[in-house]
Amino acid sequence: MKLTLRVWRQKNADADGTMSTYEVDGISPDMSFLEMLDVLNEQLILSGEDPVAFDHDCREGICGACSLVINGDAHGPERTTTCQLHMRSFEDGDTIDIEPWRAAAFPVIKDLVVDRSAFDRIIQAGGYVTAPTGSAPEAHATPVPKADADFAFEHAECIGCGACVAACPNGAAMLFTSAKINHLNVLPQGAPERETRVLDMVAQMDDEGFGGCTLTGECATACPKGIPLMSITSMNREWLRATRKAGKR
User: From CA 220, how far away is CA 182, in angstroms rounded?
Assistant: First the structure.
């Protein structure tokens, strides 16, 4: 396959960026999208140019690091992560636009790399369990209803890639935040901090400068792990419950 790549190049966070055009040839349809970028970077290095900076780690669709907007879609035309997107999803001779996530809370560091530490700070605000539990309990010591366990597992699949933010016209982080809150709040281990968790994490999300949610649904459509849109409704219910409870104290 021969492709024309239009790639966002930006030297650093303070520099102006621009789309640069490159030609790559000999691309196998069985290559992943990141392997195709590796080929481009080998070509650039051999010609004395700076390689394109992009995030990646596991390349197995688990870590969420491979965050790219491809032809206007978060992670590209398939509902998967960029590392699991294969070049057979494109045609020989295609022109492909490759950009970083676009959100005020995700400033560009260089080229296609953005700073997603805002997600880390949301987790630090309450996305954990601090209740002392002693040594590890026996696996069946704390019964969890199957419906609750399924709900928790469904939300625990969130890998924090940020596709929801990139796809949202408002740059909202509601789907990510709701997944992290709902995952813990439905389990017995998370119950003691149920109210403080949702209040603190939502407050931190707002402080980070993410946009407001208008339930357009683009976040759930783009999510490679299928976090449902109803997750946001569940979080809003938790937030209202916690707010009312706090107001009665």
Answer: 15
* Euclidean distance between CA atoms 249 and 199, whole angstroms: 15
Contact 52, 100 (CB under 8 A): no
Where is 25: in which H helix or E strand?
Answer: none
Encoded amino acid at 97, one letter? D
SS3 string, 105-138, reads: CCCEEECCEECCHHHHHHHHCCCCCCCCCCCCCC
- Are β-strands 95-99 and 3-9 bridged in parallel, bridged antiparallel, or unpaired? parallel
Q: Which two tokens stand for residue 209?
A: 């400068």
Tokens of 115: 């700073």
Residue 249 pLDDT class (50, 70, 90 cuts): low
| Residue recorded with tokens 């990646």 | 56
24: tokens are 């790559």
Nearest residue to 161 (alpha-carbon basis) of 71, 82, 78: 82
Contacts of 16 (CB under 8 A, 6+ apart): 10
Determine the Cα–Cα distance for residues 62 and 97; give it in Å rounded to an integer: 24
The predicted-structure confidence for 27-69, as pLDDT tens digits, reads as follows: 999 999 999 999 999 999 999 999 999 999 999 999 999 999 9
